[in-house]
Amino acid sequence: MKTILIITVIIIAIFISFSPLLPSKRIKIESEIPVSANEIFWGYKGVYFTYFLKRDAEIERSFLRLIVRYTEEPILNIKFKDGLKGVTRDGFLIGKLALSSDPVVVNANIEEWRLFSALFLKLFEKNLINEVKSLDFYEKNVAFFNKKGILIIIGENDLDNKLARYLETIKIMNENDKIALVKIIDLRFKGESVIIWR
């Protein structure tokens, strides 16, 4: 009986020391982007198994506590008026920079990124980010200059349709050899591309 008690105490001590199961309040996550314990560990009802990770992270263990340091690799760099940041695949800004990337220029401050992030993600998703010279504001609307120097005013909402209209307009202007005459393509209006000539 004494041996069973000693073995049980040793097993409990090892179990507590290595903290394989912990509630979320015992897990501290340090990250530049929002991430929860549920996104990093497998668990059930707020208790997490801390040895099998869903995502790569640095783990520091102590008695009944866990510190998780999580970061993601940037996909591109973003140059703001007030600094340079890396941007993740989900559009979060981080201090780590992408190794080989000409930065996308945003003519705004870092704190205004939330206004541009949805447009940036759509441009990236549709492989149009390489056509962008800079992201800008035009009369309080998000916009971008393409590398031909044309200002494309996007405005709010319905980015898929607006970018499809942008591509269609560029194609038509190229086919008619009028692309050099285009100064602005305004996509703020439903179902229309308004062209302002140089």
Please give the count of helices: 4
Strand content: 35-45%
Characterize the largest beta sheet: strand count, sense, and whether it forms a barrel.
9 strands, mixed
Q: Rg, please?
A: 25 Å
User: CATH homologous superfamily name of the largest domain?
Assistant: Cell division protein FtsQ/DivIB
Strand order of the largest sheet: 9-8-7-10-11-12-13-14-15
Ends distance: 93 Å
CATH third-tier fold name of the largest domain: Rossmann fold
Global shape:
elongated
In helices, the fraction of residues equals: 25-40%
> Any low-confidence stretches, pLDDT <50, length ≥5?
none
The count of β-strands is: 15
CATH architecture term of the largest domain: 3-Layer(aba) Sandwich
- H and E string: HEEHEEEEEEEEHEEEHEE
Overall structural class, as computed from helix and strand content, comes to: alpha/beta
- What's the level 1 CATH class of the largest domain? Alpha Beta
Give the overall pLDDT as a whole number.
89
Give the domain tally: 2
